[in-house]
Write a structure and sequence with these properties.
This protein has 128 residues and is of the alpha/beta class. It has a single domain, classed as 3-Layer(aba) Sandwich (Rossmann fold). The chain contains five helices and five strands; from the N terminus they run βαβαβαβαβα. Helix 2 packs parallel to helix 3. It is globular, with a radius of gyration of 13 Å. It starts with a strand and ends with a helix. The model has no long low-confidence stretch (mean pLDDT 94).
Length: 128
Amino acid sequence: MKRTLLIVDDDLSILKLLNFILSKDYDIIVKNNGIEAFSWLEDGHMPELIMSDLQMPYFDGQSFVKNVKISGFYRDIPVILLSAAHDLDEQVSKMPFKVDAYIHKPFKPEQLKSAINQVLKVYESSNS
């Protein structure tokens, strides 16, 4: 059975690209913003990993991930942030919560797959 990845991004082309790159190996759930994604989680779904854009309208990536990490139900789900922000390293270092990885856009598919595999391995080893 494939693992489920929740991908949150307001850019349809990025969602299509990520789905194309990852759907062979994972069940992909795509949401357009943090509100949709958090609602999906609250409906009882539990992905193995969340990948979220940092800059989105309505409920941005930082707010979405903060709410995931302070939640008793979802805080252990590993998170990878995606962003085109030139100061992504600095933004991540100032966040009041931990993310498992972050990737600058544009990214190489191999880089993305490698980050996902690494994060899932760390998550599995810490929960076994």
